[in-house]
Amino acid sequence: MADGIINVYKEKGFTSHDVVAKMRGILKQKKIGHTGTLDPMAEGVLPVCLGKATKLCDMLTDKTKTYEAVLLLGKETDTQDVTGTVLAEYPVHREEEEIREAVLSFLGHYDQIPPMYSALKVDGKKLYELARAGKEVERKARPVEILEIRVDKIELPRVTMTVTCSKGTYIRTLCYDIGRKLGCGGCMESLTRTQVSGFCLEESLTLSQIEALRDEGTLGERILAVDKVFENYPAIVMKPEFDKLVHNGNPFLRNQGMESSVTVDGPVRVYDSENHFIGVYEPDRERNLLKPQKVFLGGK
User: Fold this and answer.
1) What are the positions of the active site (predicted)?
2) Residues of the chain with pLDDT under 50
3) Residues 265 and 232 in one domain
4) What is the pLDDT of residues 43-99, one digit of tens each?
5) Same domain flag for 204 and 58
6) Where would you tag: which of 133, 167, 234, 291 has the fewest CB atoms within 10 A of its CB?
7) Domain that holds residue 93
């Protein structure tokens, strides 16, 4: 069974679950998970976790993401993108400078109302299920953060933007909100996710490319080892007599690791004495211990 992360290029028309199902067929293994849903109309980077790396899914879902989006001004739909039913159309009489100002005004924190066509649940039911039944319910605004936003091109009624944002941000809704701010409505015409944490578009692989690499026997070269995700954390290697502690997922004292100049003031990568990656540990200052944050149990 393969363990690690593959940077998949999700193509249009596939759901994120479709990608996982196809990857299970390609790799002939069940333990596979994705790291953040992309709508079927969207494309781009979708890190897929294999084997032990599936424990990483929630950690990567929390990472910031970068998108290239095309905002279509003058049209509002029920899904907030061009796949939905048109609810209203307006003329677009806005100067480029007005548009740039409106787009850039969303930089930073803002409260975003999730779209009805989303997988969020209200009273146990997914919003998109209610929307398909013709029901609309009140949704609470949620705080999101636009870390970076820029206008790349304006060819009215289209505006191409690059957006880096926090977890939970709906780019469809951002497009809708910008359209509302301009007073002419708007919806998302296209969306490409270009980066998730350290995974970028240029290094992503389509499903057909992954299948071809599997047949060549070289796919392993494109699977990122789990510990590479944490390369910016300092590393601690255990003394042989204390390997059992980390193999069992127990906390340990700093001096039970081999002598090093590592300063432990945040998360660290922990390896056993044979350099098998165990997981990420964090300091417990009250007990002067390092305790497990996420354990992958290296090679044992």
Assistant:
1) 39 (nucleophile)
2) 298-300
3) yes
4) 999 999 999 999 888 877 777 899 999 999 999 999 999 999 999 999 999 999 999
5) yes
6) 133
7) 65-196
Bridge-partner residues for 144, per DSSP? 110
Determine the Cα–Cα distance for residues 138 and 210; give it in Å rounded to an integer. Answer: 43
Identify the residue whose tokens are 């690690």.
Answer: 4
In a domain, 300, yes or no: no
Residue with structure tokens 């924190």?
A: 109
Contacts 24+ apart (CB under 8 A), 236-239: 236/260, 236/262, 236/264, 236/268, 236/269, 236/270, 236/271, 236/281, 236/290, 237/270, 237/271, 237/272, 237/273, 237/275, 238/270, 238/271, 238/272, 238/273, 238/278, 239/273
Q: Which amino acid is at 174?
A: L
Domain membership of residue 286 (yes or no) is: yes
CA distance 222 to 23: 14
**Which of the residues are catalytic?**
39
The span from the CA of 171 to the CA of 46, in Å, is 16
Rounded to two decimals, what is the model's pTM? 0.88
Asked if residues 120 and 128 have their Cβ atoms less than 8 Å apart, the reply is no
Percent of residues, the chain, with pLDDT higher than 70 = 97
